Backbone:
């Protein structure tokens, strides 16, 4: 099993979202590292891969825009979540990641006191109950999850939240607000 972090975004992320699949485009299927997207790349992926991937990026941007403004500055970077998605999400200096590799969490004994704007304060969001349960079942994710209901689970000490897949039906605006509240509660 590889220990490399693979996905879109930056390694100084404040928010990392884990997804079980990749866009079905050759270069992304071959990706073996963390790569910042460029302006227009999210639009390109949406055009090539369809509505499902557009929804993933839209929900991600809406979530970042819904986060507590005193904890996170994402909403201050653009006047709308749509513009944030197009101009910042998963790009250089975005402090966001969409990861195709499994979460690599620090053992509790290695966690240092939380400092502002460090990866120790990062929030890890696993997209989908099925994916999260498979990570636990296979031993890839070796943490205890507390299920809050049928859709959300949390591990506060490791700052991990499991939520519905980033799709309008599964993670509606009301559930995005619920997820934002859970993230706020980690601090």
Residues:
């Amino acid at each position: 099993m590889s220990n490399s972090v693979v996905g879109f975004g930056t390694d100084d992320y404040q928010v990392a979202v884990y997804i079980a699949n990749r866009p079905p485009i050759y270069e992304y299927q071959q990706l073996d590292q963390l790569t910042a997207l460029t302006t227009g790349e999210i639009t390109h992926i949406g055009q090539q891969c369809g509505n499902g991937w557009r929804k993933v990026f839209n929900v991600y941007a809406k979530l970042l825009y819904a986060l507590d403004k005193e904890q996170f500055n994402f909403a201050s970077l653009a006047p709308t979540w749509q513009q944030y998605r197009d101009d910042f999400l998963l790009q250089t200096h975005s402090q966001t990641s969409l990861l195709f590799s499994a979460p690599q969490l620090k053992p509790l004994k290695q966690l240092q006191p939380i400092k502002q704007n460090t990866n120790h304060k990062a929030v890890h969001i696993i997209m989908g109950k099925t994916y999260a349960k498979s990570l636990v079942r296979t031993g890839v994710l070796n943490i205890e999850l507390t299920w809050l209901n049928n859709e959300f689970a949390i591990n506060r000490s490791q700052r991990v939240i499991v939520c519905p897949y980033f799709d309008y039906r599964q993670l509606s605006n009301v559930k995005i607000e619920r997820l934002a509240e859970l993230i706020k509660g980690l601090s």
